């Protein structure tokens, strides 16, 4: 019986093109999944990359670039976007968390709505609208915002459960003053 060491020869049966492909696959950059939403003065883009490192964000006047490494296998991500409108490079920022990188792009023309993030109308499969944060801010008025602030303050001033009235006995079938006998239907 032949020994196993003599029958298996490393890399002998593997085509050289497959070896090169496997070695270069680790170096290929993939686009990171991202969500975006629009506000009066800013456009926000969140790149959904967990455990990111070596994050590089490049703010240009009409272009935006993002790249990073992720995970133990150092998967490389890279995105580049030709923006719908110009941004203020100095007023734009980004913040990294364990689960994503949030980029805040300051608009040059504050108060102008962006119907899309990209200059071209092309659909990017890695980019979607963040409907959880989307707000139709064009219809907002200062009065609506002040009403919201007052509502938030009122909710903050409300007490906890100890301040709720005693609801024991609410299911009693006792007669209320407005419980009158209904006339019979004819």
UniProtKB/TrEMBL annotation:
GO terms for molecular function: Hsp90 protein binding; prostaglandin-E synthase activity; protein-folding chaperone binding. It catalyses: prostaglandin H2 = prostaglandin E2. GO terms for biological process: chaperone-mediated protein complex assembly; prostaglandin biosynthetic process; protein folding; telomerase holoenzyme complex assembly; telomere maintenance via telomerase. The lineage of its organism: Eukaryota, Metazoa, Chordata, Craniata, Vertebrata. Residues 151-186 are annotated as: Disordered. Belongs to the p23/wos2 family. Residues 160-179 have a biased composition (Acidic residues). Its main location: cytoplasm. SUPFAM superfamilies: HSP20-like chaperones (SSF49764). Keywords: Cytoplasm, Fatty acid biosynthesis, Fatty acid metabolism, Isomerase, Lipid biosynthesis, Lipid metabolism, Prostaglandin biosynthesis, Prostaglandin metabolism. This is Prostaglandin E synthase 3.
């Amino acid at each position: 019986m032949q020994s196993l060491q003599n029958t298996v020869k490393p890399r002998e049966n593997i085509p050289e093109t497959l070896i090169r492909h496997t070695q270069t696959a680790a170096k290929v950059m993939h686009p990171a999944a991202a969500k975006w939403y629009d506000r009066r003065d800013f456009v926000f883009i969140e790149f959904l990359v967990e455990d990111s490192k070596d994050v590089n964000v490049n703010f240009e006047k009409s272009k935006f670039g993002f790249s990073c490494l992720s995970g133990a296998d150092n998967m490389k991500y890279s995105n580049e976007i030709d923006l719908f409108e110009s941004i203020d490079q100095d007023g734009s920022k980004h913040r990294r968390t364990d689960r994503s990188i949030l980029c805040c792009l300051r608009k040059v023309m504050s108060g102008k709505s962006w119907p899309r993030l990209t200059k071209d109308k092309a659909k990017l499969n890695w980019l979607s609208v963040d409907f959880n944060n989307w707000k139709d801010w064009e219809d907002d008025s200062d009065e609506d915002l002040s009403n919201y602030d007052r509502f938030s303050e009122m909710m903050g001033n409300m007490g906890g459960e100890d301040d709720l009235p005693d609801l024991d006995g609410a299911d009693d079938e006792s007669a209320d003053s407005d419980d009158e006998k209904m006339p019979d239907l004819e």
